[in-house]
Amino acid sequence: GLLSRLQTSAPTLRTLSSSKSFSQNISSCLWKLGRLNHVAIAVPDLEKAQSLYKDVLGAQVSETVALPEHGVYTVFVELGNTKLELLHPLGEKSPIASFLQKNKTGGMHHICIEVDDIKAAMTELKKKKIRILSEEPKIGAHGKPVIFLHPKDCHGVLVELEQA
């Protein structure tokens, strides 16, 4: 009847088949990629942004911290499984100032992923032709070494790696 006609006329689903499993396709590294530490958002008005997350959305929001070496003021918004980092320019040479000139209302600036060995990551990434935006790691907002990977080598995303 109808059921047998549906069964014979229904398209066949094809499954992806591969001789190797996904995990076998990942090259063995001397370092490991960890969890998402934070998503950074550039904001033109830091107080308004803090108020949105704290007063409107009810999140736990840190105090503002100046990071002169990076040219930013930073505020962290605690989420259950990660954080948001609100970034505001500190000085005219701030990379966030130039970002906000192009993006007047702000927006996502970068993602930060933890690594277990930042020096090994740098060595291997350089071998794989991934550009790193500094010769040596700098101390980031969490007091740990960080590096940034060129967005053109990371599909348009500025990626920060942080020593776990």
Automatic annotation (TrEMBL):
<dbReference type="GO" id="GO:0005739">
    <property type="term" value="C:mitochondrion"/>
</dbReference>
<comment type="function">
    <text>Methylmalonyl-CoA epimerase involved in propionyl-CoA metabolism.</text>
</comment>
<protein>
    <recommendedName>
        <fullName>Methylmalonyl-CoA epimerase, mitochondrial</fullName>
        <ecNumber>5.1.99.1</ecNumber>
    </recommendedName>
</protein>
<dbReference type="GO" id="GO:0004493">
    <property type="term" value="F:methylmalonyl-CoA epimerase activity"/>
</dbReference>
<keyword id="KW-0479">Metal-binding</keyword>
<keyword id="KW-0170">Cobalt</keyword>
<feature type="domain" description="VOC">
    <location>
        <begin position="35"/>
        <end position="164"/>
    </location>
</feature>
<dbReference type="InterPro" id="IPR029068">
    <property type="entry name" value="Glyas_Bleomycin-R_OHBP_Dase"/>
</dbReference>
<comment type="similarity">
    <text>Belongs to the methylmalonyl-CoA epimerase family.</text>
</comment>
<dbReference type="InterPro" id="IPR051785">
    <property type="entry name" value="MMCE/EMCE_epimerase"/>
</dbReference>
<dbReference type="Pfam" id="PF13669">
    <property type="entry name" value="Glyoxalase_4"/>
</dbReference>
<keyword id="KW-0413">Isomerase</keyword>
<dbReference type="GO" id="GO:0046491">
    <property type="term" value="P:L-methylmalonyl-CoA metabolic process"/>
</dbReference>
<dbReference type="InterPro" id="IPR037523">
    <property type="entry name" value="VOC_core"/>
</dbReference>
<dbReference type="InterPro" id="IPR017515">
    <property type="entry name" value="MeMalonyl-CoA_epimerase"/>
</dbReference>
<dbReference type="GO" id="GO:0046872">
    <property type="term" value="F:metal ion binding"/>
</dbReference>
